[in-house]
Design goal:
Elements lengths: L2 H15 L8 E4 L5 H8 L5 E5 L5 H5 L6 E6 L2 H14 L4 E5 L12 E7 L5 H7 E12 L5 H7 L11 H12 L3 E14 L2 H9 L11 H14 E2 L2 E14 L1
Parallel strand pairs: 2-3, 2-5, 3-4, 5-6
Antiparallel strand pairs: 1-7, 6-9, 7-9, 8-9
Helix pairs in contact: 1-4
């Protein structure tokens, strides 16, 4: 997918689903990091938080009590529409959602105490511009070997064929160049078991793991064979690989 295709994809998904996968039934084995649990640890009640690529706003709405003000931005109109609906339903008063590009953060300099970003592109120099001195940036990103057996079965996929660790190295380098220090990286790779074919199909249709999944009938033939080869008593087996970076400015 090129950038325009990604934007169109997220607009469509955002209007329908936001970034809510709570109905997908799956279990995992192994230690899994939770970015927003780490965010809660560094936030003070007096802090202002920016969340880049906020999706449907589900994450920051769930941690609203840990900061004074939380602002979620996304480049997708569909995602922001869903985030705004979710916010209205929640009645939480200290969360705001704005449509904005991560490449051009339209906020005053030195405005935020904490900036978070999960599974979305960010630009280190822009983050540095809006963070206070001593502020914290936290990001969780999808590693190249995530859902490796699925991508191998389809012969295509998100970062398919890219050397493991490439994205993490690029982001650490950019953060260092932008003036961040005490940069720490954590990785996890857990086994996931999706309970039914429908759960796996929902995941593939609402994420860019396999670009354009389902547009061609052969995709469902490949998926059927994949399920046959990876079905276990616990569910359909794959993996979830992520890395988290925490950096001080």
């Amino acid at each position: 997918m090129n950038p325009l295709e990604y934007k169109e994809f997220y607009d469509k998904v955002g209007k329908i689903n936001g970034w809510d996968f709570s109905n997908v039934k799956s279990v995992s084995e192994g230690t899994r990091w939770d970015l927003y649990r780490e965010v809660m640890k560094v936030c003070k009640k007096s802090d202002i938080l920016l969340d880049i690529g906020t999706g449907g706003g589900e994450a920051i709405l769930s941690i609203a009590e840990f900061a004074l003000l939380l602002v979620g931005i996304d480049q997708s109109t569909g995602m922001i529409e869903t985030a705004t609906r979710n916010s209205a339903k929640s009645g939480i008063p200290n969360v705001r959602f704005l449509m904005m590009e991560a490449e051009n953060l339209g906020f005053p300099d030195d405005f935020f105490n904490v900036v978070s970003c999960r599974h979305s592109e960010f630009f280190a120099k822009e983050v540095a511009k809006v963070l206070i001195k001593g502020g914290t940036f936290l990001t969780q990103q999808v590693s190249e070997n995530d859902k490796s057996n699925i991508k191998e079965a389809f012969g295509r996929g998100q970062a398919f064929g890219t050397k493991a660790g490439t994205l993490k190295h690029q982001y650490i380098t950019k953060l260092s160049e932008a003036g961040f220090s005490d940069i720490q990286a954590f990785e996890f790779n857990v086994i996931e078991y999706y309970q039914t074919a429908e759960d796996l199909i929902f995941l593939l249709k609402h994420t860019p793991i396999i670009p354009d999944f389902g547009r061609n009938e052969v995709d469902f033939q490949i998926l059927q064979q994949f399920i046959k080869e990876n079905q276990t008593q616990k569910g359909i087996r794959t993996n979830s690989e992520r890395f988290i970076i925490v950096a001080k400015y």
